[in-house]
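User: We ran a pulldown and think these components assemble together. Before we commit to crystallization trials, I'd like a predicted model of the whole complex to look at. Sequences follow.
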Amino acid sequence: MIVLNGGSSSGKSGIARCLQSTLPDPWLAVGVDTLIETMPASMQASESGIDFTADGGVSIGAEFRVLEAAWMEGLAAMARAGARIIVDDVFLGGAESQQRWRKALGGLEVLWVGVRCESAVAAGREIARGDRLSGMAVSQAEVVHRDVLYDLEVDTTRAESLECARTIAAQVV
Amino acid sequence: MIVLNGGSSSGKSGIARCLQSTLPDPWLAVGVDTLIETMPASMQASESGIDFTADGGVSIGAEFRVLEAAWMEGLAAMARAGARIIVDDVFLGGAESQQRWRKALGGLEVLWVGVRCESAVAAGREIARGDRLSGMAVSQAEVVHRDVLYDLEVDTTRAESLECARTIAAQVV
Amino acid sequence: MIVLNGGSSSGKSGIARCLQSTLPDPWLAVGVDTLIETMPASMQASESGIDFTADGGVSIGAEFRVLEAAWMEGLAAMARAGARIIVDDVFLGGAESQQRWRKALGGLEVLWVGVRCESAVAAGREIARGDRLSGMAVSQAEVVHRDVLYDLEVDTTRAESLECARTIAAQVV
Amino acid sequence: MIVLNGGSSSGKSGIARCLQSTLPDPWLAVGVDTLIETMPASMQASESGIDFTADGGVSIGAEFRVLEAAWMEGLAAMARAGARIIVDDVFLGGAESQQRWRKALGGLEVLWVGVRCESAVAAGREIARGDRLSGMAVSQAEVVHRDVLYDLEVDTTRAESLECARTIAAQVV
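Assistant: Here's a predicted model for the assembly, 692 residues in total across the polymer chains.
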């Protein structure tokens, strides 16, 4: 399993797609965005679910955590059943988020990858995408990496997604 | 777990969203479309993956089956970890497809729901949606129900998604 | 030119796609949703632009009206240059909105079509779609038809999009 | 009016959104992709419409040209009616495509902007996006600029969309 962690607009999804194209075996690419889409609409903009503030902040409630934990268990089971999986996530809690994944993925081989992007550059890309709340890139750029331990870090500030994917692929046996 | 089975454009996704809105607890809605999106682009239009023919036919290869099996195992694990899940699928193999799900979901309580829609009506809705290959609705309308056993069947030909969802929700304890 | 007017989730876009599929000549389908997407992100959730309230209300500002007027002029010019166009719009101002279109489309042959859907049914379809603000269907269902004059009205409450499209197509010479 | 011309995956849409965010007045952003979406589904994969070949080639038929010409006239009329418009297009015919625009936009002030991106980089971004036919970036990278006259050229190979947008915005009075 490959876990990509980085702030909003750091380029995780692009790297995931390039990894899928680069790696010889078929890998599934899943992300926390997909999890949010599978939740009821009522979980969004809700205290117990996930809430986005006007300045790009994100707050996570108890109900969200319960579903997220089950989702992590499910992905671990998919991997144990033979699926190769690239997960892209935003560790809002830094090391604590990583700890949740470690617990769920116990026993599985995991490549932990930090996806960095300078805050100002990520903010510009957020504008260029036009589909994200303004401010998420800046507010997440640093905090998601706090005390997280990686096997490998890539930086999309000056490197293309495909280059980053090749660097990562070289670590996948 | 609730499994909705029906042909393309029979209205499964709409029913799933109405179920999420109707049921008091939070349910995740996942579907085979999501699985396909998580696969590498190279799995589409490929013999070993999934291939769509010009007349709306779908053929599934060995590699697809391997990933699908792992995905089913993963969803079962999510459910065992406490997540309530609505799956929407297209049983291209009829009873054989159901058998694959039964094996993966062993021990879990499952509500099997058939979602029917008259072929001509589904074909019209396929045109109205504009995002599906023409012909899928007709070619799948009957075959996906072949020898499948249901707890409940709904028919969207004349009933709205929300009505169908309420009928289903009444069976969920 | 064909102008379809109806509330949110009344089924205008589906009818437009069915018309494109039914009519022998190629028709372009455009709508106020497309106009909104072409505007700067800052025009949304803005007093001078367009703003959606939590209960499904929509308020339109002066800046929006200026761009909308230019857009109407542009569509009229496209039609005069030979393009067949199906417009789908939401006449929030009823007869006043129609008056704006009449002014822009002066001299062009227009088929005015009212797309009705019972409020409760449209509200259910809004939930099934899952991509619209809850409440828009109900708040717009009646008001958009106030004092509007039609050549033809269709009702999607019990008729399929394709049937409605065929009824409309029969009026197009 | 600002016309951005560049190959697929050269970054035109991102620059357009950054321009909308950077320029003090509201500008509409439209593109040939929007035109294609407004056409009937039957115009795609059709000899008289637009056809995409497996290697990323694009061929345009007579019917497409007729609608495109009307669309250009319509955009010119929108601009004359006071709308500020950013167009993003792919000049498959190079100077000949520009000539078509010049004819439609006669009398309007236009800023012609070439958006360049090294072929290999654009191809990598095409993979990262995952929503374009593979090969389009490479096959269009050079040909769309053939004999086209620009007021300004930007290159996204090493510059961010927002930087390019600022360079362009500085030329807009």
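The mean pLDDT of chain D is 95. That may be worth checking against your pulldown data before setting up trials.

User: Thanks, that helps.
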